[in-house]
Design brief:
Strand order of the largest sheet: 10-11-15-14
Bound molecules: zinc ion
Number of strands: 15
Distance between the termini: 65 Å
Shape: elongated
Structural class: alpha+beta
Number of helices: 9
Order of helices and strands: HHHHHEHEEEEEEEEEEHEEEEHH
Helix content: 10-25%
Length: about 400
C-alpha cells in the first residue's frame, strides 16, 4: 500500500460510510461488506473477490485509529488536486497520478454548440453543478485558487452502458466574457484608474503615528473601475458558457457509478489548477434484459410439454439472437447460459447471457387438453414426497 494508493483511493466510499463515521460504524459496515463479498460465499466470482480485497484494504486503514488519522491528513493535503503543482512531504506523488486519457474519446471540443446544433444535448443530459469548493481543509497550500469540482449526471441507455459509448457532454460553467475579454468594460472603452486609490488598489489610513493599508473599497483592490459596463456580462467580466466534452463510458459501466475526470471541472482562478468533473451514471432499465455484473439476464416462459420433451429455444440477445437447447426433463427455474453474450470488456472475460426458464401453468384448459392431462396424470408416478410424509403424520 503506497501513499499513492492513499491519495487515489477513497476508503470511506469503499466501506460506504461518511468521513465522520465512528469507529463502530466503520467496523459494522466492514463486517457486513466482508461477509457479503467473502470468497466462501461467492465461489468462482472474481468480482466478489476483488471487492473483498478492496474492503479489507480499506478497513486495514480506517479500522486503525492511527492509520486513519494519517490517511485523513494525507487526503486533505493531497487529495484536492493541489498536490499536482505542489507535491511535498511523504511519498512525493510526482506527475499525474490519474490516468484520465482513456476516458476521453475524440478531442474534447470547447464551446461546440455549432457542431451539435445549438445545445440539443440539454435534452439528453441534465447538468447540475455542485458548489463543492475545491481544496478546503486546514492544510491547503497557498497559491492561485483551484477551480471548483463539477458534478453532473448522465442517463445512458441500457445497451450503451453494456457496449460502452462515447457521448458529448455539455456543461455550463463560468468563463471569461468574450465581448470584453474579462475586463468588464463596454467594447471601445477601457477600465480607468480608480479615482479613490489612483490605481494602487490599496488605500492608506493614518491613525496617530500608525498608518494602515487596506484594499480599496471603491475598486475592490483591482485599481481600475469600469465607467461603461459591458452589455454582455454587465461589468462582471464573466459569463456562463457551454462547453462540450466527449466522454467515453467504458463497456459495462454500471448504474450509480461515478466517473471522475481529473482537471475537467471549472478552471482555476488566476492560473490555478482546474477542478475535477464527476459524472454520475444512470442506466435506464431495459424492457427485456436485466444486468448482474457483466452478465445479462433474461426470463423466458416455456410450457410444461416443452420442459418435459425439450426444445430448441431461439431467444434475443442484445444484438441478435441465439438458439439454446432445452434438454428433455428440464425443471422450471433452470438457468441456461449463452457464453459471451453479456458485457464484452476489452481485456476481461466477457459476460454471459443468463436465461432463466419459467415453466408456465395454464390457467384455463380446453376439454381436450384436460382429458389429455388427466390421462397423463394416470400414467404418472406420484411426486416423491415420502420424505415429507413422516413429518406430516406427526401432526395428524
Ligand atoms: Zn481603488
Ligand atoms: Zn463582458
Amino acid at each position: 500500500m503506497s501513499s499513492k494508493d492513499w491519495i487515489e483511493k477513497d476508503y470511506y466510499a469503499v466501506l460506504g460510510v461518511e468521513k465522520s463515521a465512528s469507529s463502530d460504524e466503520i467496523k459494522k459496515s466492514y463486517r457486513k461488506l466482508a461477509r457479503e463479498s467473502h470468497p466462501d460465499h461467492n465461489p468462482g466470482d472474481p468480482k466478489a473477490e476483488e471487492r473483498f480485497k478492496a474492503v479489507s484494504e480499506a478497513y486495514a486503514v480506517l479500522g486503525d485509529e492511527k492509520k486513519r488519522r494519517e490517511y485523513d491528513e494525507m487526503r486533505s493535503l493531497f487529495g484536492s488536486g493541489a498536490f499536482r503543482r505542489n507535491a511535498r512531504g511523504g511519498g512525493q506523488p510526482g506527475g499525474m497520478p490519474f490516468d484520465v486519457s482513456d476516458l476521453f474519446g475524440g478531442g474534447a471540443a470547447g464551446g461546440a454548440d455549432t457542431r451539435f446544433g445549438g445545445g440539443g444535448f440539454t435534452d439528453l443530459f441534465s447538468t447540475i453543478f455542485s458548489g463543492g469548493a475545491g481544496a478546503g481543509g486546514p492544510a491547503r497550500p497557498r497559491g492561485p485558487a483551484r477551480g471548483r469540482d463539477v458534478e453532473t449526471e448522465v442517463a445512458l441507455d441500457f445497451g450503451d452502458a453494456v457496449r460502452g459509448v462515447t457521448l458529448p457532454l455539455s456543461l455550463r460553467a463560468p468563463g471569461v466574457c468574450d465581448t470584453c475579454h474579462g475586463n468588464g468594460a463596454k467594447p471601445g472603452t477601457q477600465p480607468v484608474a480608480c479615482p479613490v486609490c489612483h490605481g494602487a488598489g490599496v488605500t492608506t489610513r493614518n491613525q496617530g503615528s500608525f498608518s494602515f493599508s487596506e484594499p480599496c473599497r471603491n475598486c475592490q483592490g483591482v485599481g481600475t473601475v469600469v465607467e461603461e459596463k459591458c452589455p454582455e456580462c454587465h461589468g462582471t467580466g464573466g459569463v456562463t458558457k457551454t462547453r462540450t466534452l466527449n466522454v467515453r463510458f467504458p463497456a459495462g459501466v454500471a448504474d450509480g457509478q461515478r466517473i471522475r475526470l481529473a482537471g475537467r471541472g471549472e478552471p482555476g482562478e488566476r492560473g490555478g489548477p482546474a477542478g475535477d468533473l464527476f459524472v454520475q451514471v444512470k442506466v435506464r432499465p431495459d424492457e427485456l434484459f436485466g444486468r448482474s455484473g457483466d452478465d445479462l439476464t433474461l426470463t423466458v416462459p416455456i410450457t410444461f410439454p416443452e420442459a418435459v420433451l425439450g426444445i430448441d429455444l431461439r431467444v434475443p440477445t442484445l444484438d441478435g439472437t441465439v438458439t439454446l437447447r432445452v434438454p428433455p426433463g428440464t425443471p422450471s427455474g433452470r438457468v441456461l447460459r449463452a457464453r459471451g453474450k453479456g458485457v464484452v470488456r476489452k481485456d476481461d472475460r466477457a459476460g454471459d447471457l443468463l436465461v432463466t426458464l419459467d415453466v408456465v401453468v395454464p390457467a384455463k384448459l380446453s376439454d381436450e387438453a384436460r382429458a389429455a392431462l388427466e390421462s397423463f396424470a394416470d400414467q404418472t408416478p406420484p411426486a416423491a414426497r415420502e420424505h415429507l410424509d413422516a413429518r406430516v403424520r406427526r401432526f395428524s
